[in-house]
Design brief:
Layout: H1 2-9, H2 13-38, H3 44-65, H4 67-70, H5 76-99, H6 102-109, H7 112-123, H8 131-147, H9 157-167, H10 171-179, H11 184-205, H12 212-238, H13 241-247, H14 251-263, H15 269-299
Helix pairs in contact: 2-5, 2-12, 2-14, 3-5, 3-11, 3-12, 5-9, 5-10, 5-11, 6-14, 6-15, 7-8, 8-15, 10-12, 11-12
């Protein structure tokens, strides 16, 4: 395995970032597919709880091997925020997977950078003129194309996907900050350690004793989530937030493939059209923000 690590480390940072984001996307869509398969047999809160439990079990050897690094975060507050957001996002994601095709979830999730711009305008009192306004309008147009209110039957899963978008708005920023001070595996460990008690409380009230088969699938989800946390942390080390967000748009074809292979689902043409509009708006916004950062840095 060491030669594989050495080979990957020899790649340029942007190639490494692309590789890790593609792996992360694959792990995520397969995870959502498994949740969609078992969500009618066991409660979502319980799935999130067992996901965190099995993730902690799988990552235990890493903790034993390097406890001084993995159990002592340098930024505990930011780590705590990331853990809470991971819990909230997991619950919303899994409820969405119960009600919607995987490709639909992925396409609507593309609107996250648009919501980040709106939040920045409210919290930081930043203006919504020019490129930002254009990007936000484009994002909402793309979302409307996918959802088509009044033209297709409303799906409650849309609310949960938008919930994921809202709680994950700050996550790229938090992860980028943590990548500057934390080992990637420290982020993975603490995310699951924080999610575990948060998920346990609601899971108790909806408890259904899982079968051996359900435990197997939830253990698989836990393994995929643990790997995804480690992979995504490495992506943020190798690439700027803007690059990682841009590469996230590769998840739609991955989601479409997973949905077709696992459930025979085919993404409607409107899903692709809306996703392209949202992606174009978000990438336009990201490019504008990046140029603004460079100009501000030069002024200083």
């Amino acid at each position: 395995m060491s030669w594989i690590k050495h080979k990957i480390d020899s790649w340029p940072p942007v190639i490494q970032c692309t590789f890790w984001v593609l792996i992360s996307g694959t792990l995520m869509v397969v995870q959502l597919g498994i949740v969609r398969m078992i969500a009618n047999d066991i409660n979502v809160f319980e799935i999130v709880f067992f996901r965190a439990l099995f993730s902690c079990i799988f990552i235990a050897p890493l903790i034993v091997g390097n406890p001084t690094v993995l159990l002592k975060p340098n930024r505990p507050v930011i780590m705590g925020i990331c853990g809470f957001l991971a819990f909230a996002a997991g619950v919303c994601f899994y409820f969405a997977a119960k009600h919607m095709p995987i490709a639909d979830i992925t396409a609507i999730h593309f609107s996250r950078p648009i919501f980040a711009a709106i939040l920045a305008s409210i919290v930081l009192k930043e203006g919504l003129k020019g490129p930002r306004a254009i990007a936000i309008i484009g994002g909402f147009v793309g979302a409307a194309i996918i959802i088509r209110p009044g033209l297709v039957e409303f799906n409650v899963g849309i609310f949960f996907v938008l919930g994921v978008v809202l709680v994950q708005t700050w996550n790229p920023i938090n992860r980028r900050l943590l990548s500057q001070s934390e080992h990637p595996d420290t982020v993975a460990v603490w995310t699951q350690l924080i999610v575990l008690p948060l998920a346990m409380i609601p899971a108790i009230f909806f408890w259904i004793t899982p079968t051996i088969e359900l435990l197997f699938w939830m253990a698989t989800i836990g393994l995929l989530e643990m790997l995804n946390q480690r992979v995504l942390a490495r992506a943020y080390i190798q690439g700027e937030t803007v690059i990682v967000l841009a590469l996230h748009y590769t998840r739609l074809p991955l989601a479409a493939i997973a949905g077709y292979l696992m459930f025979g689902e085919t993404a409607e043409v409107w899903i692709w059209v809306g996703a392209i509009v949202i992606a174009a708006a978000a990438l336009y916004l990201a490019q504008h923000e990046r140029r603004a950062e460079i100009i501000n840095a030069q002024k200083k």
